[in-house]
Amino acid sequence: MNYILILLSFFVSNSPFQQEPEEIFTVDVYINADRQVYLEDKLIKANEVKKEMSDYASRKKAFLEDSVLYRIYADQNLEMGFIMDINNQLISAFHPANTRTKRFLLYSEELDVNSTNWQHQIQKMDLKAIEN
After folding, report:
1. Please, which domain of life does this record's source organism belong to (predicted)?
2. Other C-beta atoms within 10 Å of 103: how many?
3. Which of 41, 57, 103, 111 has its C-alpha lying 20 to 30 A from 69's C-alpha?
4. For the structural domain made of 22-123, what CATH number should be given?
């Protein structure tokens, strides 16, 4: 009986139906109080977010089968409409079936986005995502 259970557990764990861990393609976007938009560490024009995001996804070899998480960090004094416009451009450029966005509001004066580790600085801020 134990032999059958061991054999059965081997086949279940090596089954072709076993799911692969899901890859999440995470994209960090920062928008400061002056409406300057950074896609990861690149300063881009607000009206070119769609093109830049499409190029970025291609460079990173992201696939539509992947999941994507857009994390938008925006100055708290920006209008929500501007933030949503940037979000819509991101989604329009690259929109897998499983797409999520988390938006965070912060004081942009506290962040040096010109440093190479601005994403690490943000992670230390203990920010809470705003609700839709």
Report:
1. Bacteria
2. 21
3. 111
4. 3.30.420
